[in-house]
């Protein structure tokens, strides 16, 4: 059984890695953490503990949970070391050609900044839903909270984002 799971895991890496990288890049936006480092640690941890994977979830959500927990641990370490906010907000350069106009770039930067200012769990839910396209049941599985609570927190996160964006416009 363990051998079959390992083989499936190895086969799925090319599909899982880009999705997780995109999600972590959004989640870590504004922090000093590198998504590549977190992903490498998450994949290594998952491979070493593949025997614990019970198949109750997808490999993706299992890996996402591992990566998210690593991020949380790293944020805590940063907070202890610096004694300040766990997610410093930085300006990021938009590299995509589709955002050539300055106003659009400014809007994207403001949205990223607003997302980074959300409480950790709300930020996680917004990124899982909006960036990575996870369903509410998948988000509930990763976060360990029930689906209705996820929906309520997504509603609250959207309200807080709207308020933050409104404040930036003033």
Describe this protein's structure.
- The protein is mainly alpha-helical.
- It folds into 2 domains: 83 residues, Rna Polymerase Sigma Factor, Chain: A (Orthogonal Bundle); 71 residues, Arc Repressor Mutant, subunit A (Orthogonal Bundle).
- The protein is built from 7 helices and no strands.
- The longest helix is centred in the N-terminal third of the chain and has 26 residues.
- About 11% of the residues have low confidence.
Q: Which value, in Å, is the CA radius of gyration?
A: 17 Å
Q: What is the CATH-assigned architecture of the largest domain?
A: Orthogonal Bundle
Class derived from helix and strand content: mainly alpha
Give the SSE string. HHHHHHH
State the separation between the terminal residues, measured CA to CA. Answer: 59 Å
Global morphology? globular
By CATH's scheme, which homologous superfamily of the largest domain applies?
A: RNA polymerase sigma factor, region 2, helix turn helix motif
CATH class of the largest domain: Mainly Alpha
The chain-level mean pLDDT equals 80
Task: Give the helices and strands, then pairings.
Elements: H1 2-27, H2 35-48, H3 59-82, H4 102-117, H5 120-131, H6 136-143, H7 147-169
Helix pairs in contact: 1-2, 1-3, 1-5, 2-3, 3-6, 4-7, 5-7, 6-7
Task: Provide a quick synopsis of the model.
With 170 residues, the chain is an all-alpha fold. The protein contains seven helices and no strands.
Entry keywords:
170 residues; mainly alpha; Rna Polymerase Sigma Factor, Chain: A; Arc Repressor Mutant, subunit A; 7 helices; 0% strand
């Amino acid at each position: 059984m363990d051998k079959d799971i390992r083989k499936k895991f190895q086969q799925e890496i090319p599909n899982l890695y880009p999705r997780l990288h995109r999600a972590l890049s959004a989640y870590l936006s504004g922090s000093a953490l590198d998504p590549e480092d977190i992903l490498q640690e998450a994949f290594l941890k998952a491979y070493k503990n593949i025997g614990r994977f019970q198949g109750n979830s997808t490999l993706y959500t299992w890996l996402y949970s591992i990566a998210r927990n690593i991020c949380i641990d790293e944020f805590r370490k940063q907070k202890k070391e610096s004694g300040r906010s766990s997610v410093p907000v930085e300006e990021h350069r938009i590299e995509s050609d589709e955002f050539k106009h300055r106003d659009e770039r400014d809007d994207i930067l403001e949205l990223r900044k607003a997302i980074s200012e959300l409480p950790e769990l709300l930020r996680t839910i917004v990124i899982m839903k909006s960036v990575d396209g996870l369903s509410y049941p998948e988000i509930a599985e990763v976060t360990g909270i029930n689906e209705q609570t996820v929906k309520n927190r997504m509603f609250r996160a959207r309200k807080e984002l709207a308020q933050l964006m409104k404040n930036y416009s003033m």
